[in-house]
Write a structure and sequence with these properties.
563 residues; mainly alpha; MetI-like fold; two-stranded parallel sheet; 25 helices
Length: 563
């Protein structure tokens, strides 16, 4: 009897562990299914509308919007690819005066949202801006100098602005790839008679192709997500058309059908990115990572290299940020501090809430996948991160339907049961905005925490299990303390991204609820850019923190010494 009891007691921890294990997995799968509801809702609205808007959209809205979107994606990504790859190669493989400083500054445009960059450039280069006013005053209103500046509010202007704001995505990807490439491969190329440029085109660039494809994909996703910049620049893209169809024409089915087109485009981009990576695997056949044999530039070549890497920083960050500072200082005496503080407080509260929820969900998904590496849990992790590919306008439409269905169902039940009307509890509430931000940026938190968990040896889990420790207790006592840096990084990245998010916040916020981003949007729409400049400066300064931390992680990511 005592022997049987001992056997049963020995088996109890395993039984509890298995149940807990399954609970983690099923919870993760259920949460991923809930996060997938917006996509299913968009498909359902688009395909089940009683009055199809397809004929009207195909005849009027879609051709122009789709053409502008494709041209914007192609132009901005190609220009960003050229800038990001060339600057990354220069700062990785060459030494010249100012190289170390340029390496740090090249990532700064990521701290400035595209809509802020576009506001600054329109203010600077528009017909009534200081540049054109100065040229007309100096050379006359009809001189060649006064009329030489092209209209910044155009598709061409949008392509340049987007490329200047987004090239750091390619730069960081290319930089990380170049600094981790084996020197041996480059040395073999040089031994076979290749010049520096030949080694770049025939060895380094092909090996960096997966990283470059990932960087270009991020540029394209940001182009698809933008609303404020394209509206202000007068470019009709799919995102702007969805907003106009929904909010200005009150045609939700039509907006959902446009959103469905954008979902198809996103799927094409994701598949295209996988094809661009190719089936070949680019890896090193040696563990020898010696210091990179930098080539030192001198004289005119050194100054040319410095000018080349400084120009994107100047145009993508320094110049627009200087415009913001100039406009903000000129408005200090009549600045609406009460409105700014209210919007700043709302932004901080909303971003902190979204950050906390996103980190908690990311921990759930990543820990469940660590415990139970099945197809279901791994698929749940991947599905939960798909929200990052959804533009804010699309996400807002997808959230509206399930939240409205819940509100209407609860209200009908309360009316029939208690004769009480609950009204709209979730639609147009802070819950809706928070849910959108969590879904949108959950992938950011997952990638950070997943990387942190991968650095924790599985032997620790095995030791905890041997000692009879529950999974939840092991997470609380062992994993969480070791994950503090990863959790902090995830929370910070989500917080800053949520601070900058405009489309989803603009469409789902409660009535009279303003964040810094939505307040800037309203003020610039009313041509009050000076009033919006202070909020823009605040957003940029907050965004600088994770950008600089991200650069430090990439620059220090190579084994084998300094890079």
């Amino acid at each position: 009897m005592s022997s049987a009891t001992a056997i049963l007691k020995a088996g109890l921890p395993k039984l509890r562990d298995t149940v807990g294990h399954d609970r983690w997995a099923w919870t993760a799968v259920a949460a991923a299914a809930l996060l997938a509801l917006p996509i299913l809702a968009i498909v359902w609205i688009a395909l089940s509308a009683t009055e199809s808007s397809w004929p009207h959209l195909l005849a009027t809205v879609l051709p122009s919007a789709l053409k502008n979107t494709v041209l914007l994606l192609a132009g901005a990504s190609a220009l960003a690819l050229a800038i990001g790859t060339a600057t990354a190669w220069l700062v990785t493989m060459f030494r010249f005066p100012g190289r170390d400083l340029a390496d740090r500054l090249l990532v700064l445009p990521l701290a400035m949202p595209i809509y802020i960059v576009s506001y600054a450039y329109v203010d600077l280069l528009d017909f009534a801006g200081p540049v054109q006013l100065s040229l007309r005053a100096a050379f006359g209103p009809h001189s060649a100098f006064a009329t030489a500046i092209p209209d910044i509010r155009s598709l061409g202007g949008a392509i340049i602005i987007f490329a200047l704001a987004l090239y750091p995505y390619v730069y960081l990807s290319a930089r990380a790839s170049f600094v981790q490439q084996s020197v041996c491969a480059l040395e073999v190329a040089r031994t076979l008679g290749q010049t520096s440029s030949g080694a770049f085109w025939k060895v380094a660039l092909p090996m960096a192709r997966p990283a470059l494809a990932a960087g270009v994909l991020l540029v394209m996703m940001e182009c698809l997500n933008d609303l404020g910049a394209v509206q202000y620049l007068g470019v009709e893209t799919l995102s702007a058309s969805i907003y106009a169809t929904w909010m200005q024409r009150s045609n939700l089915p039509g907006a959902a059908q446009l959103a469905l087109v954008m979902l198809v485009m996103i799927a094409v981009l994701l598949i295209g990115e996988r094809i661009a990576r190719g089936d070949a695997e680019f890896h090193h056949t040696t563990g020898r990572y010696r210091a990179i044999p930098f080539e030192t530039l001198a004289g005119a070549r050194a100054y040319a290299a410095l000018a080349f890497v400084a120009l994107p920083v100047l145009l993508g960050f320094v110049l627009p940020f200087a415009v913001l500072i100039w406009r903000a200082l000129g408005r200090i005496s009549v600045f609406d501090s009460a409105g700014f503080l209210t919007a700043a407080g709302n932004s901080l509260m909303l971003s902190a809430t979204a950050s906390g929820v996103a980190v908690a969900l990311a921990l759930l998904f990543t820990y469940a996948a660590r415990l139970h590496r099945t197809a279901a849990t791994l698929l749940a992790v991947r599905m939960s991160g798909f929200g990052y590919a959804l533009p804010g306008t699309v996400l807002a439409i997808g959230l509206l339907v399930p939240l409205a269905a819940f509100d209407n169902g609860l209200d009908a039940w309360m009316r029939s049961t208690f004769s009480i009307s609950t009204g709209l509890l979730l639609s147009g509430s802070l819950f809706a905005v928070t849910a959108a931000l969590v879904i949108r940026f959950l992938a950011v938190a997952i990638s950070s925490i997943e990387a942190g968990l991968e650095r924790i040896s599985p032997n620790i889990d095995a030791a905890a299990k041997t000692l009879g420790t529950r999974r939840s207790a092991a997470l609380r006592m062992i994993h969480l303390p070791m994950l503090k840096p990863a959790l902090g990084a995830a929370a910070l990245l989500v917080f800053v991204d949520a601070m900058k998010e405009l489309p989803a916040t603009l469409l789902l916020r409660p009535f009279n609820f303003e964040t810094l981003a939505t307040r800037m949007y309203a003020l610039t729409a009313a041509e009050q850019f000076e009033e919006a400049a202070v909020g823009a400066v605040a957003i940029v300064l907050i965004g600088l923190i994770p950008v600089l931390l991200l650069h430090r992680a990439v620059a220090a990511g190579r084994a084998g010494g300094s890079n």
